[in-house]
Amino acid sequence: MRQHVNPLSKNFNEIEKIPSLIEMFGDNKFNLHLDIGCAAGEFLFDLALDNTSWNYLGIEIREKLVKTAKLKVRDREIKNLYFVFGSANNILTDVQNKFIMKNVKSISFNFPDPWFKKRHYKRRVIQSEFINTLSNSLQRGSLIFIKTDVKDLYDYMDSIISSNLNFKVIDLRGFNYSQSFNPNKLKTAREKYVIINQLEIFERIYIKT
Ligand SMILES: C[S@@+](CC[C@H](N)C(=O)[O-])C[C@H]1O[C@@H](n2cnc3c(N)ncnc32)[C@H](O)[C@@H]1O
Q1: Are 1 and 70 in contact (CB under 8 A)?
Q2: How far apart are the first and last CA of the chain?
Q3: Domain edges within the chain
Q4: pTM of this prediction?
């Protein structure tokens, strides 16, 4: 399977409309977490089973992975998990999907594609315009989690988010995970690989003020 998909390709201009919260989840009053670039969704399946009083939404640009994940959700009758196919940038900046931003409590960007060449930086998922859109539509107190093993990508994402004055860095040492979308600090697929290979992890949490 192709690992890297160019999110700026015209193929992703046509976007999937995200169904209403009632259509997606068994209980639409639960806190909602959004995971961007969720791949096959293993992390979200683990979270949804571990933490049944939150709803989880994953957005992934590789269609086959999303199709398989959706079938798995249906077969296992999981009511607090939903997957959407497409480029997160296009999906979340579209006015018809704005309601998601109003309802999410937190968003994670776990090990996004690094796009190492400078001329490809524009393909990285975190971009100023995208962060401005999030900052305009997220509720105060919403959290953004970033995590990567690529220092250059971390610096790039951090400088973009930190330059938006609506987001403040939260001290990781004092952060209380028990109230978060991931109370048991479950690991993503990439994170497990990174830990086994003893690579460094760079992470930060921001709060919308
Ligand atoms: C390196 S993988 C990390 C997967 C997972 N988050 C983890 O930590 O194991 C990055 C994922 O982001 C997806 N992706 C890249 N750009 C995207 C975009 N603009 N919108 C949605 N998904 C994207 C890729 O297809 C890939 O599955």
Answers
A1: no
A2: 40
A3: 10-208
A4: 0.97
**What's the rounded Cα separation, in Å, for the pair 37 and 19?**
19
> 109 near 144, Cβ under 8 Å?
yes
* Residues 206/163, Cβ–Cβ less than 8 Å: no
Which residues, judged by CB distance below 6 Å to any ligand atom, belong to the binding site of ligand 1?
Answer: 5, 7, 36-39, 59-62, 87-89, 110-113, 125, 188-191
What the block records as the tokens of 113 is 């594609």
DSSP reduced 3-state for 4: coil
CA-nearest residue, atom 24 of ligand 1: 37
- From CA 140, how far away is CA 102, in angstroms rounded? 10
Give the integer Cα–Cα distance in Å for 147 and 111.
Answer: 6
Surface-to-core class of residue 203, CB atoms within 10 Å of its CB (0-12 exposed, 13-18 middle, 19+ buried): middle
In angstroms, the CA 71 to CA 22 distance is 19
The pLDDT of 1-22, averaged and rounded, is 85
**CATH architecture, domain 10-208:** 3-Layer(aba) Sandwich (3.40)
* Distance separating alpha carbons of residues 179 and 139, to the nearest angstrom: 17
Q: Is the dihedral of CA 51, 82, 191, 131 positive or negative?
A: negative
Residue 132 pLDDT level (bands cut at 50, 70, 90): very high
Distance 148 CA to ligand 1 centre (A): 11
